[in-house]
Amino acid sequence: MLGLKQIKKIAVKQQNKPVLITDDFSFGWTDYKVLVESNLVNLLKNEYLNTDTTRVIIMSENSWKLFILYSCLVTSKVAYSGIDYTMNDEKKIACIKQSGANTVFYSEDNKPSDVMLASLPNIKFINLDIIKEDTIDDDTDVFGLVKQLNHSDDVLSFSFTSGTTGLPKCIYRKSSFDKRRLGIFTNKYEITSDDIYLVTMPFYHVSVNGWAKLTLVNGGTVVFGDFSNANDLYYKITNYNVTSMLITPPVLQRLVPVLQKNNYQNTSVHFIMVGGKNFPTILKEQAIELFGPVINEYYGSSETGINTLADSQDMSKYPAASGQFMEGSKLIILDDKGNVLPSNSIGRIAIQSFQCADGYMGKKMAEITFDGERYVITSDYGYLNAEGYIFVTQRVLFDDNDIENNLFSLENRIRMIRNVEDLVIIQDENNYYTINVKISKESTSMMVKIIVDAINGVLASSQDSFNLNIVNNINYSLSGKVKYNEFLNSK
């Protein structure tokens, strides 16, 4: 998010042009400056942020108050992160403890439970309603207050993994890559002050902050969408002339039929970035058909940033690939002994990038040195073809898992079967595979049997045995990750 100095500079040019549009409250660049100034003065003068503040955690859904708070924290130089407010108490407590934060802001709908309050007696909990719409007529020098705060921390920023396979891990960075990456993306995707960016994910996720900032540094407008409601997203896209968005495959999958039903014609969107999980090939085709050649995909992680990029032309060439290295990133594929594998060999993906995190709080990050450079080893497996395109094959959940199967390829083939709405293949610690399939509710019992036969036909070429499980739903985290634990714990 932007700090006050940058906001003031942009506001001189953009003035009352909208910077944030929400269902509850919207404001322009000049008011953005005033709101941050006023609320930061309040936070500092009343010592909600003080010399004892270490770091800050936020538990809140997307709101204009969250937007303002983020800018206040950036200006005060206090490291902060949102957390998934839908997590259970155990995970929330673990996040707060790992982070070293001693201050937690929360929204009215995400108050800390009694269990959290009892487990975290030394944490200061502050209601986000402390952020006010009514500005204070106060001529206090806000930068003077920030100077008095004199906050110092060797950690510049931190964030969390999704926690879909266990407790979230806290990732930290000691330096910023923003300026370099924002410059690359501004030029590559032609982002300008005319852009209107639709938010389709929660702001607690680090990627949302990054893509929103891409719009803001260029003087554009951010619109908050209800990512649980595809009809709301359709309304915002068409009524606000949205030009760009970051979206996860699960949200895009819900949006596509709504657009199709309304005979949507793209007249404004010039850039869509999709990421967060496996992007099904059939969904790529549907999205390109609806929006035109404006669909882009990235592969990366919270630990490594954005590392490969694919545009619509790449998708047409290699539908199952996730693009090629972006500027400043390199990928290698490793075998189980840490040796680099040749093209078209499946192994573990390792990434070298100026965006890589420095480590985890209290936990060692898997890494390797190759040609004198540090590579972070991911949990993903895949292969590089001879042209340098990355094909992600699966996410391995357990260290002893067999990694030779291209599970995402199997998923893509099964998705081609009519009335298969969603699926995920789960590999447990014993290399036992379960295919969890959601079938359209309109399917007759006979159609279900036909679908099962078709799936078995796809699996016939595999030497492994798969258990087929028909499910009512496949749940995802708000950042688009399959909630693997729900399947593993149900066994």
From TrEMBL:
Transmembrane segments: none annotated. Residues 13-360 form the AMP-dependent synthetase/ligase domain. One of its GO terms (molecular function) is medium-chain fatty acid-CoA ligase activity. Belongs to the ATP-dependent AMP-binding enzyme family. Keywords: Ligase. SUPFAM superfamilies: Acetyl-CoA synthetase-like (SSF56801). One of its GO terms (biological process) is fatty acid metabolic process. This is AMP-dependent synthetase/ligase domain-containing protein. It holds the Pfam family AMP-binding. It comes from the Bacteria.
